[in-house]
């Protein structure tokens, strides 16, 4: 879920052509959850094969990754490792919320409330270890680079961007900015339109770029200040202070020297404050990764998606041919080994 900073961070709409020939370190878990939430049937039920296995995440990963490659973008999927101990309560709470949403989804279906059923279904998405592993297998068959983070995927992705191994992080969350990524691209793997809640209106989903440097300069704060603002609002590692949103947190941090001064003067209680701050400033990351593209294996893609998961052979073949052409285009930009 991440921290909510949209109230104070400026973003600009961009076109895909501005990302041509750029490496984007994509938060894999974030994208897979998006696919599981959005790619569903009208009653909220996820796509499934004949054995009842969920395939929404595979459909999104396969087709939307191909869309990116066709646009000349070089995706790198970064997968989470072991979560920090401070995140365990958040994970526990998310599981509880997903189960509650699942119950409300089933109830809404029985009551014939289609819109509510779909909404609750999207909130019940569960990403299993099996789903993660088969997603990695699919990317391997496609020849797309995968990086396994030692801990938080967004921290690892931000580290890669700071090193110059990628141009930006791709995620729906803002956490990569707290981890120090110079750029964040939102809506990279989301396409089409989004229905407004309780209305028969749709809004177009646009590609958005957020610059860390530009926002810090505009707000007159440092990255450390932004982290302190996030902690006051609430992160994956703490609940935050009740009644404090992004704008109020910004004013509080500007008034005081840092969050330690805030806690002392405002008499707030934030358990594990130093540890939380350190998780953002010095996260657990690794340099042990390779960004080499593999070989596209159409036969393994067909076997995996069509023979095992009941995907349409004709559609998968056409998509694989598009992927082949897209990879050829990337090869013309530069050698895959130099990626």
From TrEMBL:
Residues where Mg(2+) 2 binds: 173, 175, 236
Domain XPG-I: 140-221
Region (N-domain): 1-98
Cofactor: Mg(2+)
InterPro entries hit by this protein: 5-3_exonuclease_C_sf, Flap_endonuc, Flap_endonuc_arc, HhH2, PIN-like_dom_sf, XPG-I_dom, XPG/Rad2, XPG_CS
Cofactor binding remark: Binds 2 magnesium ions per subunit. They probably participate in the reaction catalyzed by the enzyme. May bind an additional third magnesium ion after substrate binding.
Keywords tagged on the record: DNA damage, DNA repair, DNA replication, Endonuclease, Exonuclease, Hydrolase, Magnesium, Metal-binding, Nuclease
Matches recorded under Pfam families: XPG_I, XPG_N
Gene Ontology MF terms: 5'-3' exonuclease activity; 5'-flap endonuclease activity; DNA binding; magnesium ion binding
Subunit structure: Interacts with PCNA. PCNA stimulates the nuclease activity without altering cleavage specificity.
Entry's family note: Belongs to the XPG/RAD2 endonuclease family. FEN1 subfamily.
Name of this protein: Flap endonuclease 1
Organism the protein comes from: Methanohalarchaeum thermophilum
Organism phylogeny: Archaea, Methanobacteriati, Methanobacteriota, Methanonatronarchaeia, Methanonatronarchaeales
